[in-house]
Amino acid sequence: SQASEPPYLSGLNPPQREAVLTTDGPVLVLAGAGTGKTAALTARLAHLLYTRRAYPSEILSVTFTNKAAREMRERVGRLVGDAVEGMPWLGTFHAIGAKMLRRHAELVGLQNNFTILDTDDQLRLLKQLVLAADIDEKRFPARSLAGLIDEWKNKGLTPREIDAGESERYANGRGGELYEQYQARLRAVNACDFGDLLLHVLTILKNNREVLELYQQRFRYIMVDEYQDTNAVQYLWLRLLAQERRNICCVGDDDQSIYSWRGAQVENILKFEKDFPGAKVILLEQNYRSTPHILGAAGGVIGNNTGRLGKQLWTELDVGEKVRVVGVWDGPEEARRVGDEIEACQRAGKSLDDMAILVRAQHQTREFEDRFIAIGLPYRIVGGFRFYERQEIRDALAYLRIVNQPADDLAFERIVNTPKRGLGDKAIAKLHQLARAENLPLSFAAARILDTDELTPQARRALGNFVGDIARCRAMARDLPHPELARQILDESGYTAMWQAEKSAEAAGRLENLSELVRAMEEYESLGAFLEHVSLVMDNEGLREDPKVTIMTIHAAKGLEYDTVFLVGWEEGLFPSQRSLDETGTRGLEEERRLAYVAITRARRQATILHAANRRIYGQWTSSIPSRFVAELPDDHVETETTMSGGESLWRANWSERADPFADVGRGTGRGPGWQRAAGTLGGKPGGDWQSRTFSREPSRVVESRTPAVSLGNKG
Ligand code: ATP
Ligand code: MG
């Protein structure tokens, strides 16, 4: 309205303006999805610079991802010109931590050119320590220790602060001791891991008054986006840094806290007013992102959580389309359906860049990737590797390649010592020598070298076993269906066991990816045909600038928005995840529900939720029931469609009455095409052998589903 108003203020609503203009003193912006929290924070940054309240180097702004940092930098750049050049303290906690640590490395015994280890390096180091400590790594995997150390670091605990109870969590009380050794070892090699980027900085701030004061003075203003997902160590940092000037502005949404598995504490929001007495709390209630139907649907789901702060949301946007719930027969149909709809949107003039598919678990991307490659639909995977590029998939493929093609040296090298078989660098070097000298592929050279006395007895035994395993698998390849062959190779080589030994969430994800790989193989005639497909997939990179549909996990989608969003795999055991259902209590389930809320609220115009009646799991067709979150969608905002004669709506009604939706479907009856197909693929296993999944937490009735779909009985 006022012509003289700076550009970043125009268009902001009154509470947003208040968040921007209340520059001094603590401010907490608490608001639901799409209410312009990030927009307000960006304008606030622009305001501080524009009014010269601070130099760019005097503002600490924390974003949740590097991508978000880049976006904020660009937006502020547009708003106030090039004043953002050199905003050194705009970034993620880790990026900011690395920068601070470089400056004060000597205070924690490092040199400022320290290396930052990736998880592979970290693990290798831990394994050496575990071995040296005479701990049975089979019983106490180094990976578990890695997870534990990470957890301690996220909590801000140094080795000295690990008490006996915590220490007990690894190798009968030796956790603390190994943590200490690990830290010493890192220091000796002038390195740190990701957790150290936060923990070391906290240690420095706590133990060095003058450094703390330096930063307390330096940071005139502190701002934090996605505050609900800060963990303890980040929280402690912020509290120390802001204690002096108290110009801190945090924005967040308790309903979008989805990283508790990585140590995030939503309680940090509740503590804010206590830590910073007199804080101004600003609520934003107007949503600018989504249509009323989308908001209504998201609100209906999240309303089932307890202990929420509770916020209002309204919008001026047109009511728009209802959220569509689509039931499909199985996973492949889901992928086909989404592909078709995306192409239809394209024909209607929408850009692929405005569309996204959100999955709950990484392994779900595979089916979509394969389908999109088949129909030539450009896609990108955000926040993770494309399926066939993931470490465990590349490893598994290397096993398959070496069975398929003994001369594949690259494959051989990749897996000859994965999992660790006790083949040292020396043994491998000798193998290479022989291969070169006799001009043989490595796997042939390996067979040859076993006849010599070149290797130590240990290396010889290890290599002998490996060569034997591969030879056996190659012999089996003639008789065994190739998915079964793959399963055996991965089992016999110890590869599956390597990931099973680890109890972390990451390992569970890798195992899921491996079974997804085996599942994918079933769609191809032979091992050769499958490998051919994969090499084509791997080559499908294309130009980065072209519009592409985005596939990503819900976790990676936080803070983002798309016109059209497909939410796939909304089935019990997938979403909510089986993990959350197996947990006692409702914590896990409530976090899944927040994920559902985040997922739905990414959509601006159109949200489509899909669930399949059948999924193939370990080669077996398993019937699945739609996610409870589907039932929680308020009827007014949803339009249900199913490719299976009304089964879905019947199911919705049943679930809300907490009844067993399969009660009147007899076991083993009502076999439809899915049964026959499954039996065919599996070489005629009877239906009775089907794996059944049991959902025993919520609702309290046990639903044991052995029939592929509730609607089969009604069909035709
Ligand atoms: P999330 O909780 O998902 O992170 P958010 O609260 O950070 O959401 P933003 O991403 O900042 O929300 O804003 C959502 C959308 O609304 C964006 O497209 C943004 O440009 C737009 N927007 C924000 N504020 C306004 C406003 N005052 N007028 C018009 N559009 C706005
Ligand atoms: Mg945001």
Automatic annotation (TrEMBL):
Span list, region Disordered: 1-16
Source species taxonomy: Bacteria, Pseudomonadati, Pseudomonadota, Alphaproteobacteria, Sphingomonadales
Pfam families: UvrD-helicase, UvrD_C
Homology family: Belongs to the helicase family. UvrD subfamily.
Domain of life according to the entry: Bacteria
Start and end residues of each UvrD-like helicase ATP-binding domain: 10-291
SUPFAM superfamilies xrefs: P-loop containing nucleoside triphosphate hydrolases (SSF52540)
Record bears the keyword ATP-binding: yes
Protein name: DNA 3'-5' helicase
Annotated catalysed reactions: ATP + H2O = ADP + phosphate + H(+); Couples ATP hydrolysis with the unwinding of duplex DNA by translocating in the 3'-5' direction
Class of this enzyme: isomerase
Binding site for ATP: A31, G32, A33, G34, T35, G36, K37, T38
UniProt domain UvrD-like helicase C-terminal: residue ranges: 292-559
